[in-house]
Amino acid sequence: MSKPTLGIIGGGQLGSMLASAAKKLNVKTIIFSDERDAPAQRFSDEFIYSQYNDQQKINEFISKVNIITYEFENIPFETLNKINKSKPVLPKPSINRIIQHRLAEKDFINKLNIRTTQYISIEEKSQIYTLQDLLPGLLKTTTLGYDGKGQHLVNSIDDIKNLDIDFSNNYILEKLVKLKKEISIIITRFSDKKYEIYEPIENVHEDQILKHSIIPADISDKILQQSKIWAMQLAEELKYVGTLCVEFFIDRNENLYVNEIAPRVHNSGHLTINAYNISQFENHVRAVCGLEQVPLKKISNAKMINILGDQINNYRNKEYRTNEFFFDYFKKEIKQKRKMGHLTTLLI
Ligand code: ADP
Ligand code: MG
């Protein structure tokens, strides 16, 4: 069978790394992005610049590809669903609909008896006055949040008065967990009970943005097993095809919680490019394109550091050791706290 052409919606660093992985597998890629300077066009075979609601451009894109995937989850469900009627979209749009909405996502996880933080849907400010038990807590927008965007810390009832938030956008209030550690599991599901699962990755955040990731995670065997079981259960229940990330919290009493699911390749999995025989990106392409599943082998322990904003200038034109791998995302504009690149160091 000849290899399919893969359409990728979104042209940032995740799109770039997916396109590079596809190239290695001789899978052609077409990036579809609403950003004229989208970095992923450097790595794909073709690039379509368009707004996400331009039906003519979408039709052109659909006509040129066999399968469509996406690098970020905030694409309107209606758009993905419409595309899915002509060509398969993987992961399925119905999965995206659940996960892009924090409330639907947490309800889904809890129904499987998997622990999340305590949370409640908030429709108006006055509601919070009765929710002392959930304070200190975080108010999060139900949709479109990333890297801590759309989140507000509410320490006490006194804080509520000063909240300047438009509650007509829906929010959830989530109890703050006394964090000991954060980990993530990257899993690629190929079909029924067929997975490749990476070992848990330990993640350190700063200002709600991932700062660095490391394997192995310094966790108990019990947490290691439980996190893997939950990740497999979630992927299976969603009948997911492709790479998925589950983010977890571990509290000071060694309780494990699922924080959120990302229905896509994930920042914490960048170290899989150098630390494993097959990266999260290559596995995603293999799964969505129906290519061969190859058993995962770890090559090395590793640490990945995110390079934010103008820090990138310190990394460009630098010499690296043979165990260091620098990735420049080639973003045109440097913005404060923007993810500009990463450095993975293999820990031998
Ligand atoms: P995003 O969609 O922006 O990634 P998250 O819900 O994952 O949103 O929050 C980003 C980070 O903020 C988390 O990785 C964690 O460090 C911190 N955080 C979020 N919710 C909580 C919580 N309930 N308790 C403690 N820390 C939290
Ligand atoms: Mg997160």
Description:
With 348 residues, the chain is α+β, with helices and mostly antiparallel strands. It folds into 3 domains: 85 residues, Rossmann fold (3-Layer(aba) Sandwich); 58 residues, Dna Ligase, domain 1 (2-Layer Sandwich), CATH 3.30.1490; 169 residues, ATP-grasp fold, B domain (D-amino Acid Aminotransferase, Chain A, domain 1, 2-Layer Sandwich). The chain has 10 helices and 17 strands. Strands 9, 10, 11, 12, 13, 14, 15, 16 and 17 form a 9-stranded antiparallel sheet that branches. A hairpin with a 2-residue loop joins strand 11 and strand 12. Helix 3 packs antiparallel against helix 4. The relative contact order is 0.13. Bound molecules: adenosine-5'-diphosphate and magnesium ion. Adenosine-5'-diphosphate binds next to strand 9 and strand 14.
